[in-house]
Amino acid sequence: MMKIRWSKYINAYPQKDSVILFHSVSRCVNKISKEDYEMINNVLAGTKPTDDIKKVISELYVDKCIVKEDEVEGEMFKEARKSRDYSGECAAYFIPTFTCNFRCPYCIVDSTEHGTENKKLTDEEVITMAKWLKQYVIKNNLKKLTIELFGGEPLVGFKQDILFLKELHSLEEQGIELEFNMISNCYLLTEEKVDALIECGLKSIQCTIDGPKEIHDKRRILASGKGSYDKIIENIAMLENKSVSLVIRINIDRDNAPYISGLLDELGERGFAKIASIGIAPVDPPVADSNISGHTLETMQYLETIYKALRRNNFRFKMWETFCGHGVEHFFVICPDGKLYNCPSFAGMKGYEVGNIYEGGFFEDRPKVHEIPDKCYECSLVGVCSGGCYFTKTVHHLNDDYCLEVTHSEMIKQYISNMYGD
């Protein structure tokens, strides 16, 4: 029998009677008995395998959970990063305005210097942007276009959103698949606006709720200083009878983490498990010296109760990761002034432009996938981390010691254990 070992990208999560194996690069999940797991470890240490264990090992080998001892796995992850350029898909964030009706303390966009907060796009400008994007998709022979309406607050630019989406529909005549989504605080959401967006093809809305009313209203603050919880709950409850998916994002840090399980129970009692999936996301600090951060041991200690509350209330939930699209060729952001950026977090920041629609599109020297430290290729979680958020590392001038291993380890452990566990 050839010499084999566990893949360096395998993460094992023991349960009551089983072990869940998660491959962070391929995203493959296997569940085996604790007895089989122990026997496989014995085989890898030199014990002769039984026929039954040979079969289990063969299945895990096919899924690359077990590899040859001399396998060079770093190349596997490099190829996974590059492969997104060849998927035939384009994902573009459209920012109709940087203006927002909220003043959230951890807002990334609010911490950038874009200088176009009050710019209102004319119909002609919106159409120009849509035409450029259509030409880009056709020129690159892409098969699918996904649009994320973003901001600021995209509903402040509702008229521009509708015009932009309508202009893109002619791509369907050429066999190109369209998917439209929106990331919104949902305070300005009305039934009339929802219906108009759905008619344009909107598939999903992501909305943020950061705790029960008394906690949320201290974090998701209107420009007037008032809270937003009651209005948001009222607005998203309306989506129950609408043909659009709802994603509730919950940003967590050490201040609000103790209250999130209570929020989930409240949302469950209101019936939101029928219409919403949940995304738990540790907050990145908006500035380097900020105390607002979800990447702390104090925050992580509440994850088990949070994920138990997700299961208890029968919520669907999403996996948190920092393997983003930065530097992927067909992933970019369109800003109100026509400038293009590789990532929505950089949108509007001077010196980070990678193109301009009014100057022919992307610059020739547009940066590609950002480099990550060599040591990251040895980490079992690199497939979901990818070296961490490039925006955070760059803007905060952090060095290669920057690492979110503690956060990723606990976040993935709780996600996998509660999604697939006993």
Mean pLDDT: 92
Class computed from helices, strands and strand pairing: alpha/beta
Helical percent range? 25-40%
State the total count of DSSP E strands: 16
Number of helices: 14
Major sheet characteristics = 11 strands, mixed
Poorly predicted regions: none
Assess the beta-strand content as a share of residues.
15-25%
| Rg, alpha carbons | 23 Å
Strand order of the largest sheet: 12-11-10-9-8-7-6-13-14-15-16
Query: What pattern of helices and strands is seen along the backbone?
Result: EEEEHHEHEHEHEHEHHEHEHHEEEEEHHH
- 3D shape: globular
Distance between the ends = 33 Å
How would you describe what is shown here?
By secondary structure, this protein is of the alpha/beta class. The protein has 14 helices and 16 strands. It has helices at residues 34-44, 51-62, 74-83, 123-139, 158-168, 191-199, 213-219, 229-237, 260-269, 297-300, 303-312, 382-385, 390-395, 405-420, and strands at residues 4-6, 10-14, 18-23, 29-33, 66-68, 89-94, 144-149, 177-183, 202-208, 245-252, 276-282, 316-318, 331-334, 339-341, 355-356, 361-362. Strands 12-11-10-9-8-7-6-13-14-15-16 form an eleven-stranded mixed β-sheet. Strand 6, helix 4 and strand 7 form a beta-alpha-beta unit. The mean pLDDT is 92.
